[in-house]
Write a structure and sequence with these properties.
Blueprint: E1 4-11, H1 15-25, E2 30-36, E3 41-48, E4 51-58, H2 64-72, E5 75-82, H3 86-95, E6 106-107, E7 113-117, E8 127-131
Parallel strand pairs: 1-4, 5-8
Antiparallel strand pairs: 1-5, 2-3, 3-4, 6-7, 7-8
């Protein structure tokens, strides 16, 4: 399995302050913003070289991001690794006894297929695996 860093998800509790830091202080630009209603989240992608930061703000009280921020505060929520064949990667991980949050790919941001590896199997880190659906590798194209 060859994996490439796609993005790092950062849960924020004050979007305006987070955007001010990443855009004003660091000079980065928001590349794309996307609503993910199934997760009660709005994702703001900030390009950093060949990867991105995904600033995540909760849009509902039931959002996993709202729960994360209320328990742990703002900060790194997950890392995302891009793989070519998500279903095969999940099957291989399951066969190795890796604990999965998602045993099958599901719809994620940017029209990609995603699945999460449980932090218990990834040394305390929530790992998102992502497979882009389009043949185009144009990251965050809108």
């Amino acid at each position: 399995m060859k994996a490439v860093l796609d993005h790092i998800g950062i849960a924020v509790d004050d979007l305006a302050a987070a955007l001010a830091f990443y855009t004003d202080a660091l000079g980065l630009e928001v590349d794309a913003t996307e609503e993910v209603p199934s997760q009660g989240v709005r994702a703001h992608f900030v390009r950093v070289g060949s990867a991105s930061l995904e600033l995540l703000e909760a849009t509902t009280e039931e959002s996993p991001i709202r729960r994360f921020v209320s328990r742990r505060g703002a900060g790194i929520h997950h890392i995302t690794l891009r793989v070519d064949d998500l279903a095969a990667t999940l099957a291989r991980l399951k066969a190795q006894g890796v604990r999965l949050v998602d045993e099958a790919p599901r719809e994620g941001a940017e029209g990609a297929l995603v699945a999460f590896v449980h932090p218990a199997s990834a040394h305390g880190v929530l790992v998102e695996l992502k497979q882009e659906r389009s043949a185009s590798r144009g990251h965050h194209a809108r």
